[in-house]
Amino acid sequence: MANAAIFLCAGSGTRMRGQVADKVLTPLGGHSVFWHSIKAFEDSGLIEHAVVVYRDDEQREALEKVITETNVDWEISWALGGKERQDSVFNGLSETSLLVDYVFIHDCARPMIRIENLHALHQAALENGAAVLAHRVADTIKRAAGSQRKLTARKLKDVPRSNLWAMETPQVFHRETVMECYRRLRLAGLSVTDDTAAVAREGHSVTLVENPFPNPKLTTPADLPYLEFLLQQYAQ
């Protein structure tokens, strides 16, 4: 049974406010942010094929250097990123081998992925066809009525959090299932923000794999020192 990983690196990173040239190539703990994801998958021994979704030729060249330095033993394919995340995922899926049974889809702006996470996701996907790394929502959540721009004097309504989960990556699916779901999504002209939404739209269930470890996404400059701290605290 063959497994592949799609590494999403093509995001624009606009919320980094120009403080770094490329967030997945930003140094973190002595290596690039991208390297940490590659290394976790390499150490897991779970995949034989990887597709790297890149933004432009300059970024691809830099990503190739990271892969060479990591000395991974995979078949590597490349896919150009699309306008939206779902376009990038579809482009990546299109480059996976027909021999692949399961595919891990991972946003490389999440460098804290752990080997045990990957094995737990793989097992859940084997049993149920789809799995996502996630954590329980701990904050009090409110729904605000009125305009999205004017925040003063808003009426707030509680949203029960007992069944709320925050999605992370990787997300793992049977390849043909998720590929067909994305084909139908494109034909319908609809948008989703993660892969579980694409398969849920077609009636498929997804197994939640609770992550006991922090796995934040690098989104703003303030996230970098926090990620450095986490790397020191949770080094494998």
Determine the mean pLDDT: 93
Largest sheet: 7 strands, mixed
The CATH topology corresponds to Spore Coat Polysaccharide Biosynthesis Protein SpsA, Chain A
* CATH arch. level architecture: Alpha-Beta Complex
Defining traits:
single chain; 236 residues; alpha/beta; Spore Coat Polysaccharide Biosynthesis Protein SpsA, Chain A; 7-stranded mixed beta sheet; two-stranded antiparallel ribbon; 7 helices; 11 strands; 25% strand
Tell me what you see in this structure.
With about 240 residues, the chain is of the alpha/beta class. It has a single domain (about 1-135, about 165-235), classed as Spore Coat Polysaccharide Biosynthesis Protein SpsA, Chain A, CATH 3.90.550. The chain has 7 helices and 11 strands. The protein has helices spanning about 35-45, 55-70, 85-95, 115-130, 175-190, 195-200, 225-235; strands spanning about 1-10, 25-30, 30, 50-55, 75-80, 100-105, 130-135, 140-145, 155-160, 165-175, 205-210. A 7-stranded mixed beta sheet has the order 5-4-1-6-10-7-11, sandwiched between helices. Helix 1 (about 35-45) packs across helix 4 and helix 3 (about 85-95) crosses helix 5 (about 175-190). The model has no long low-confidence stretch (mean pLDDT about 95).
